[in-house]
Specification:
Two copies of one chain form a homodimer. Chain A is α/β, with parallel strands linked by helices. Chain A is built from ten helices and ten strands. A five-stranded mixed sheet of chain A has the order 3-2-1-4-5. In chain A, a hairpin with a 3-residue loop joins strand 1 and strand 2. In chain A, helix 1 runs parallel beside helix 2, helix 3 crosses helix 9 and helix 6 packs across helix 7. The C terminus of chain A is likely disordered. Chains A and B meet through strand 7 and helix 6 of A and strand 7 and helix 6 of B.
């Protein structure tokens, strides 16, 4: 059996095909343009692999992940032009004619890291990405966390010392929330250069302070057994080490655990699946869900795995050609 | 079958006996003094009810809840004089000669509210108390959340505008963390009167701002389907309403859900079990765990439910009289 994985991002979509994380048979990167054009190109990629059983998608958000909602699968309030209100799940299911498992990009990455990466064997952990934006996915008791919506780590409020850092923050919704202060976009706006050209030590100290404040709040709420910290900004050489030091200091002596003292290097870690955590996690989500469904009596699809016939009817994407690949026909 | 429930707090311990939340046969409040004296008095109360099958405890913390830890059941870093390092679980199990299910006070309260109270039927929600201190318990996917440790909502870092509020915060570990700024103790130190004597509207506006900031961070991390907001400070008349308004404003248009708009009154709610959420939750934890154990083949105790014989040997509480109530003998 082979499966497809998609990590749908604001700048690029990464697509992969394979039987599992250790057997990727093809991978492609497609630049994000309009929803229809992007998904057309995604469909082209997958059309070359006619034996795919199901597709897993980890998408940028925020998303409507409520399977009972008429908008299940929709990107809701993104400032990304042209994408707000797009039902990515319906579009994909229609174009691909395949079952689609739909999740946030960071939820999929967390799932992948838990199965095969830096959180293998753990029940409760989280994956945080500090890139253009800041996002996080959490696994609690072995399951991807959803609730009212899904986690939105980037929009926590953290202390902002305006004497040290007069920058107002760049979040169009909240100004100086965690993402507004510490994302790659915040660095670019505050310092006038992209993160990978930023050298000033005091800039990285400030960034470490903000990232550590965000992490401490995650520790205080989710109590993760490990934090996986990825994203392009985290590649800056001193940052991870500075963040670990600041988290130790901010936690202080209150938390009586080696993980927040000497064990911090094994507590806040880089993704083991690197930049591919999202797409691998998405592919493995499709595989896992398909296997679960196959083992269910009666073959009733589990929530989240879209039955392809239902999708054809309910997709609400009028006039879009449906790829002639429905192997139920 | 009857069970015991204990909510162990920094100022009082509440003990209850009954067959379930709707059949409490006795309830007592014992002031918190030294660990040995307090637990002696707790044991006296339960000695009058010889048919108790198991005891559930929701204790103040922070706690070591790792059942593989040699300190499982210990209050770790509390500033409460005499209590840091006390193994409450061992002490109780030794004195009572009964299986003990051990949890945080707020974890037990969340469990109770989920079974019979304001979060009935929900899978993912949290219970927050704003009293002398600030604590929170979370349920994710139907289970009480533990991970590295347990949630510590009170020690999140939130924005602190020192021009508006020059008070440094009262947390002995972190100064102006959430608890340091918004707890009853913070109100008392900042305004010079206890919360229930505080009238100034601007004081309650400031308090609402801090509580709302904490809640927004909980929403961004746990994405609870509902937030139950209890504790003595929340009884101040305008506070809950002000908090709801501030959460709406802070969330802004980013979160595309009625719960953070007009539905806020059903999203941030008072505890349905009132001041008894903790003790009822603890009693129900004992009951649930006992019933689960009884339905297990072979009768192997589940993690968390202490076998009374093991407790006698491993309690590590030398010289303490063991109540002669081991009905295994």
């Amino acid at each position: 059996m082979i499966y497809g994985g998609i990590e749908g991002g604001g700048t690029k979509w990464v697509c992969a095909v394979g039987s599992g994380h250790d057997d990727l048979q093809a991978i492609a990167t497609i630049p994000t343009t309009t929803p229809v054009e992007t998904i057309d190109r995604v469909a082209e990629f997958f059309a070359a692999h006619p034996d795919i059983a199901a597709i897993g998608v980890g998408s940028f958000g925020p998303l409507d992940l409520d399977e009972h909602s008429p908008r299940f699968g929709t990107i809701t309030t993104t400032p990304k032009p042209g994408w707000a209100g797009t039902n990515v799940r319906s579009l994909l299911a229609s174009k691909l004619g395949l079952p689609v498992v739909f999740e946030t990009d960071v939820g999929a990455a967390a799932f992948g890291e838990g199965r095969f990466g830096a959180a293998k064997g753990l029940e409760t952990f989280c994956y945080i990405t500090v890139g253009t934006g800041i996002g996080g996915g959490a696994i609690a008791h072995g399951e991807i966390s959803h609730g009212l919506l899904h986690p939105e780590f980037g929009h926590m409020r953290i202390p902002h010392d305006r004497r040290r850092d007069p920058f107002e923050g760049c979040c169009p919704y909240h100004g100086d929330c965690f993402e507004g202060l510490a994302s790659g976009e915040a660095l670019r706006q505050r310092f006038g250069v992209p993160a990978d050209e930023l050298r000033a030590p005091e800039a990285w100290e400030l960034e470490a302070e903000y990232v550590a404040l965000g992490l401490v709040n995650v520790i205080c709420t989710l109590s993760p057994q490990r934090i996986i910290l990825g994203g392009g900004v985290m590649n800056a050489t001193p940052l991870l080490s500075l963040v670990r030091g600041r988290v130790r200091l901010l936690a202080g002596d209150y938390f009586d655990t080696p993980a927040l003292r000497r064990g911090i290097v094994d507590y806040i870690v880089r993704p083991a699946l690197g930049d591919h955590a999202g797409v691998i996690g998405a592919l493995e989500l499709a595989k896992t869900r398909s296997e679960q469904d196959a083992s269910h009596d009666g073959g009733v699809p589990r929530p989240g795995l879209v039955d392809r016939r239902e999708t054809m009817i309910d997709s609400g994407v009028a006039g879009l050609p449906v790829a002639n690949r429905d192997r139920d026909a």
